[in-house]
Amino acid sequence: MMTITYSCSLINICSVKEFHMRILILGRGVIGAQYGWALEQAGAQVDFLVRKGGSRNYADTLELHTYDGRKKRSVDEVWPINLRYEIPAEEVYDLVIVSVNPEQIAGAIETIAPVAGDATVLLMGNTMGNPLSRLKNLSGLSAEQFVIGFPGAGGGITDNVLHGILHGIIQLGVSEKKLNKREQAVKNLFESAGFKVSLHRDIDGWLVNHYVLNAAMEMEVLKRGSFEKVVLSEDGLTSMMGNVKKMIPYLKAKGVRPDMAIVMMSILPARLLAGLMGKTIYKPGSPAYDAVAYNQYQVGYAVREIQADAKRLGVNIL
Known about the structure:
Blueprint: H1 4-11, H2 16-19, E1 22-26, H3 30-41, E2 45-49, E3 61-68, E4 73-80, E5 83-84, E6 95-98, H4 105-116, E7 120-124, E8 146-150, E9 153-158, E10 161-166, E11 169-173, H5 181-192, E12 196-200, H6 203-224, H7 227-231, H8 234-253, H9 260-267, H10 270-279, H11 287-293, H12 301-312
InterPro entries: KPR_N, NAD(P)-bd_dom_sf
Domain Ketopantoate reductase N-terminal: 23-131
Protein name: Ketopantoate reductase N-terminal domain-containing protein
C-alpha cells in the first residue's frame, strides 16, 4: 500500500525536508555516495545497501573530499553513513537509486527487487541507450517503476576516502510528452536538494551519444594506462577527439543524431580543442582533473560493446 509520505512526494506539494523521504542506494560507489550525501543534507533519510563480506571493507564513515558544483565550493568532511547489509521485508522506501556499470545493471535489479516494493527506481548510469529496452527480466518489478537518468558526478573511493566532483545538474528522461508522477517526484527531489534537472524526451539518444564519448575516452585510456595520463597529454586528448569523429558513421547507422558536443569535436581542430581542455577543464588541480585522477573505473566494456555493435551494422570504427 502506498504511504502518505510517498503520496506527498508524487504530487509534489512539499519539499524533501517536509516529508522526510526514505531513499535506498545500492552500493556505496562514488556516484551514489555523493548523491546520498547531498540528499541527506537536504533532509532525506538515506541508506546504503551493501554486500556483507567480500573484498571491500566498509567503514561507518566516509571521508569526503569533493567539489560541490551546486554551491561552487569544496567539501572536506567525515560523513557518518547508514550502511545496511539486509533490509527487513516490512521496511518501505520511497526511492531506490541504482548507479552501476552497464554490465552490472541486470544483477543490480535482481538485488534490489526483493526490497524495492512499490518504490520508484532511479537508474543513473553510463549505458548504451535506455537500459530498460534491453533488459529481458526485471525480477518482478514493473517497468512503470523505473525512471532513467544520468548523473553529473565522478571521482573515486580508496580506503573509505572519496575524492570527487558533484556537478549541479543531472539529466532525466521523460517517458511521455509530459512527466509522469514518478519522474515528477524525482525531479522535485533533486531540485529540492539544489540541483538543476535537464529533461530529455529522447533519453535513449542522449545516452547513446554520451556512451560514444565515453568509449572514445576509454580507447585512449586502454592505450595510455589511466584517465589521468590521457588528460595530461595533449596528444591523448587529440586522439580522443579523433576517436569521436570515427564514431559519427556508427551513430548515423544506429539512427541516432550526433549531439552538439560530438559535432563540435568532429569539425573543430582537435589539437586546438585539446590544448584548451588541458588549460581549463583538465588543468591540474581543477575539480574535474582531480575527479579524473582518482577515477578507478575499469575501462574496456563500452569499447567492446560499441565495436561489436558497429561490426553488426557494417561500420568500421577502428
